[in-house]
Write a structure and sequence with these properties.
Number of helices: 17
Strand order of the largest sheet: 9-10-5-11-4-1-3-2-16-17-18-15-12-14-13
Strand content: 15-25%
Helix content: 40-55%
Shape: globular
Distance between the termini: 30 Å
Number of strands: 18
Structural class: alpha/beta
Largest sheet: 15 strands, mixed
Length: 463
Amino acid sequence: MTPSASDRKCRALLAFYGDDFTGASENMAQYHRHGLRTFMFLERPNPDLFARKAAEFEVVGIAGIARSLGPEAMVREVEPTFRLFAEAGIRLVQYKLCSTFDSSREVGNLAVAANLARHIFPGCFLPVFAATPEFGRYTVFGHHFARHGDEVFRLDRHPSMSRHPTTPMSEADLGRILEEQGTPSAGLVDIRALDAGDAAIQQAIARERARANGPVVFDGIRDDHCPLVADAIWKVSRTEAVVVMSAQGFAHGFGRFWNKRLATAEPPVEALSAIDRLLVVSGSAAPLTARQIDAFARSGAVTVRLRVSAVVDPATAASAASAALDTAAEALSAGRSVCIFTALGPDDEEAPGLREVAARMGLDHGAVSERVGSALGDVALRLIRQHGLGRVVIAGGDTSSYTLRSMRPDGLTVASGDYATGAHVFRLAGDGAVDGLEITLKGGQVGDEDFFTRLRDGRAAEP
């Protein structure tokens, strides 16, 4: 079924909620890549504002923080957004999850989102598509794999994800992960159906929905699987509500399907001008981010530690932030780029102290992420205002949501996409120094080692 031109004119084709800001921004960029006009809110808007944007843009998203929350807080975060989408008459909803399926029963529980979807959209189809082959994320017979360097590992054996500080993965079967977190039994549309074509996919969907009463996982190992899956999901959404729980591979696939685009040999890169000073604020503990910070320092940037164990304690938070702010301001005044960081990898020297303070104060992961992210955002905003900065990078999937929210922008659009490395640059809409600010949101596993350096030094366009 080909979408009609009248559908394009009347309202958004779909709406999405991103469970963290970095992932939501990557998801948004994939729709933009394929010419779909996309706007993303950074707070849940009122129904009138959402309706206006849904009439103006083909895709409307809301960046959220569910990935860092416990189950009860997730309900408070996600339920009103799902209701907003339902009341607006949106029949195809995407719950954007991480392509490495970051979640557990205690933090970012995906079953909470799935069961809310079933409650608010009764009888809805719940496909799950975590594959993003272009990004090195693959699902085969329901088991998920992720690239690390030049190698590909099963999720529970992945050098980073198996040691994630918050949601270490001990299982690779996505259906089993969902069931263990609390969904009804999951189905599977596997690689054999995808390779057999559209009719076989639809038959497999019908069979699995009859067999299992929970989510239906889709395989995906090639880029061409993404538009196949998106097409199949779109067909179902023409007659009933669909809430697809997916990574950015679905957004890429939907864009390819909608515009009948072939896969490119190399992902495109849009031009970006160089700047004299780049500010990076990082709440990431990923090994890759640590290597990126090191490369940035070797290129001439000044690195400044924000003592995370001090930031989460109100008695020491102000002095810790002030110390980092003063050092960063001095470097920026001297014409140097700056990276303010909270950790250099999962075994960072601050990790034991942070755990001790969090336990003493009774802080869960969400509360720690909020305090750290808000401190980074406050420091960043002060530096932006004082030094007239035009481009900032925020690294860290869990903390970035709080960092950006603390800067209080209204929303964002894509300024320059880099689909080879994920170094997308967005333009904020808001008040004062925030309006027009260029910003990049980086997840822990995103990019190569020169990620920050290239965002400072610019890049040429590549087809």
